[in-house]
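Input chain follows. Return structure tokens only.
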Amino acid sequence: MLKRLLKEVKEYKLPAFLTPVFMILEVAMEMFIPLLIADLVDKGIQVGNMKEIYIIGSQMIVCAVIGLFGGVMGGVLGSKASAGFAKNLRKKMFERIQTFSFENIDKFSTAGLVTRLTTDVTNVQNAFIMVLRMGFRAPVTVIVAMILSFRINARLASIFLVAMLIILVIMVFMMTKTRTLFETLMKKYDDLNGSVQENVTGIRVVKAYVREAFEKTKFLKGSQGIYEAATTAEKMLAFVSPIMNFIVYTCIILISWIGAHLIVVDQTLSTGQLVSLFSYCMNILMSLMFFAMIFVMITMSVASMRRIYEVLEEESTIQNGENPIYEVKDGSVEFKDVVFGYNKTAERPVLDHINVKVKSGETIGVIGGTGSAKSTLVAMISRLYDVDQGQVLVGGIDVKDYDVETIRNEVSVVLQNNVLFAGTIAENLRWGDKNATDEQIARAARLACAEEFIEKFPDGYNTHIEQGGTNVSGGQRQRLCIARALLKKPKILILDDSTSAVDTATDAKIRKAFREEIPSTTKFIIAQRVSSVMDADRIIVMDDGKIDDFGTHEELLERNTIYKEVYAQQTGQGNGDFDQKGGED
């Protein structure tokens, strides 16, 4: 896992390498200064030799300046390396997410992916810079200080060794206990982000139903969950600091007591050496404090690293075959005994043995009760999901044999939920074709009957669209999305209930434009209104995941009960009930 994440250091390898080098330079100077202090006391101060004091003092100043330089460079380069590492991690994760199928996205959830890209990466970034700076500085300080301390007096230096072993045992115990707690904490962040995302996205509904109090309660519940999980973990880590302080002061007391005895009674230790030992004591024990800080950061980041690793290693369920095909011959579509279910363990599939054949250039209406799997049916064409059994053929070839990008470029889908992005109308339409000319944009808008309202805006195609298209109506949003899809010049066009917010007259104009302007494009029109599909070449009637019938408007009126009920209900010729089944598409 760690090896995989460290691959993203990439162009920041040099700063990452130089950071510990400069930190070691700082440590070397810090370790040399106590030796100079010992000489300053023994050879200068105690004997009153001012010349020696000046010489040694000058050497100490030089060491301090070099150490300062090393520390500053280590800080600058460490920050650059860690920030670059975080940038690359986010970039790689985002690129990976772009390859995910809908099934992969469902597995992680949108809120979970947002948390991984923000909070988790920040945790790893903080741990990375701590390791680069203190992770190298602390052990080198401890090792060098221990060696020099043993050279001065092994009896006093052994106190440091015992302290280190005690601290090591405590840190291992704490890390084992708190790791699962931090994993739980990250999941709580997912829940909180999900609550915020849902609230902000649906803020108009929240205000319309005066549910602000309910949303506040839900948010506070999520926030309370984070508080409790964080408090539980931090309570355990809170013991680290007082334990470390206890060990530090105990070591100082023992050195003072034993050192004084060695100076006064045994006379085996000089005053300068005792001062040096105090310096090394503080260096060692402060390094152990840094170890504790690193341990806390790593403990927090282990759970985050695992979550980032899951995203980076997740393979899309939609993959190219060994020798993918890069050209779609035409827009013909055939379903051969297709079976599909979102939940693979469910008793019944969502699509149950679908068999239907559509010629290139045909206009196919798809109608049926809510939950009859109309949207799921057309999702198979562009491989938004892969079938569990059977085949979906486009241009006479299984969609799994095509290059994924190729098949999706030839299929334009206008989904039920119309999404526009922040930017101008022209910029939104160019999602269909980034190189589209102004004339091509205008033609697509005319076919989608969007030109009539765009031209009424003072800025025309340069009119700014707010995020989500909140400053245009639902019908306008749908027509812009249709125009965007048309700019792709697809062989297959799928309109998934995408004219539901458009009046019937405009709906009829759009369908007329399709017939006259793009006759060679295969069109699938999913609709709740019979008027939207009745002039289609043929109509699929879906019922509970199966094709109940397939034929022209006239044929279905003669023989299909469901279609007759829908028609009767919507034309006022009967009391049929269209939405019989309930559920979700």
